[in-house]
Amino acid sequence: MTPDPRLRAARRCHNVVNPFHSTHYFSPDLGKELAAVGVEDRSAAYFAVRSAAMGAVGAGTVSSTFYNFKHDLVARHVPAVWQVASPETVLAARARAVDSTLRRLLGEETLASKEMAEAAELALRATEACTRHARPLYAAHADLPVPEAPHLAYWHAATLLREHRGDGHLAALLAAELDPVEALVSHVATGKGMAPKWLLATRGWTRAEFGEAADRLRARGLLTGDEELTLTEQGVQLRATLEERTDVLDRGPYEHLGDEGVARLTELATGFIGAALGNGAFPEDLIGKTA
């Protein structure tokens, strides 16, 4: 764990703000809205909504910025998806899906509450210290307008904070010499990552490729020799170092917000995501090592 208490607090804040952004990826509303504009394939919809802020980019850009998706899967849908729906159309559909998802998960009273407006103000203040250089997904989303409705403004800020940290995390993965599949396998082995069944269903890698990556990690001394995905002491240290490096690269927004602001945003975000989880925002089997 990062020894600096401020970095620990920043990570705790991220861990409850980030899922607020992710709720729409698992919402039936997203599939409905994207299908209405002609994008019916689930993978195509995900690639489109997350990359649309960058414009009608090609498969190479998406594979580069998303990191852990197999390029073959990306190229199957990008850039073809832009012939079906423009980035502007996709962004509008995503906004409708986010709005309906949050209304269903949290209710009108929560969305209109002073606490939601306060969370939006705090999160947006944090984003004032985000940086664009070498952060393509963040930079693209930072060029989008801030929505007026507080719950959408908070979601927008959560998106900026998520992509800002994510862009930095990719730099840490490269420095650790973890390729896309190795990054996935090592994260699963922590017990905190997405379960293999979900990764294999969404990232485009085969079970054989997943196993080969595990073998490479064993050869590096990062996984134990048995069939279970269990980190060695060296593997635990590598994953800890990865997160610590990501914390350092992502410290700016939270230093800018200040200790009291971080604590308050964490408190508010915890309440919102707790309510969303209680209303089925994510599949129960999303996290874990079960294949």
Description:
The structure is a single chain. This protein is mostly helical. It has helices spanning about 5-20, 30-35, 40-50, 60-65, 70-75, 80-85, 85-105, 110, 115-125, 135-140, 150-175, 180-190, 195-200, 205-220, 235-250, 250-280. Helix 2 packs antiparallel against helix 7. It starts with a helix and ends in a 13-residue tail after the last helix. The mean pLDDT is about 95.
What is the topology?
Elements: H1 5-22, H2 28-36, H3 42-51, H4 59-66, H5 71-77, H6 81-84, H7 87-106, H8 108-111, H9 114-127, H10 136-142, H11 150-175, H12 180-189, H13 196-202, H14 207-219, H15 233-249, H16 251-278
Structure at a glance:
With 291 residues, this protein is an all-alpha fold. The chain has helices spanning 5-22, 28-36, 42-51, 59-66, 71-77, 81-84, 87-106, 108-111, 114-127, 136-142, 150-175, 180-189, 196-202, 207-219, 233-249, 251-278. Helix 2 runs antiparallel to helix 7.
